[in-house]
Amino acid sequence: MSPDVQPRAVAAQQTGGDNHGATVPSALAMRSRLRSNAERKRTALLRELAGEHGAMQSHQGYANCW
């Protein structure tokens, strides 16, 4: 085994054989954080463009997200 492969194999054994398992929750958390930041900016821009905080504008913003 080459030296750079060995530590990964050891780490995989210690985490129960799934080398990527440890990174999944943090990746999901980052994705949801990025998504919520983007949505916040987007709704703020929509409200700014609309020039008012009416119910219709915010509703359309949500409809476009899905």
Kindly list the characteristics that best describe this protein.
single chain; 66 residues; mainly alpha
Give a structural overview:
The protein is mainly alpha-helical and 66 residues long. It has one domain (6-65). It is 71% helix and 0% strand. The chain contains 3 helices and no strands.
**In DSSP terms, counting alpha (H) and pi (I) runs of 4 or more, how many helices?**
3
What is the total domain count? 1
* Element-by-element helix/strand order: HHH
Number of strands: 0
Question: What is the secondary structure topology, with strand pairs?
Answer:
Blueprint: H1 6-14, H2 24-50, H3 55-65
Helix pairs in contact: 2-3
Region (Disordered): 1-24
Summarize the model shown.
The protein is an all-alpha fold and 66 residues long. It has helices at residues 6-14, 24-50, 55-65.
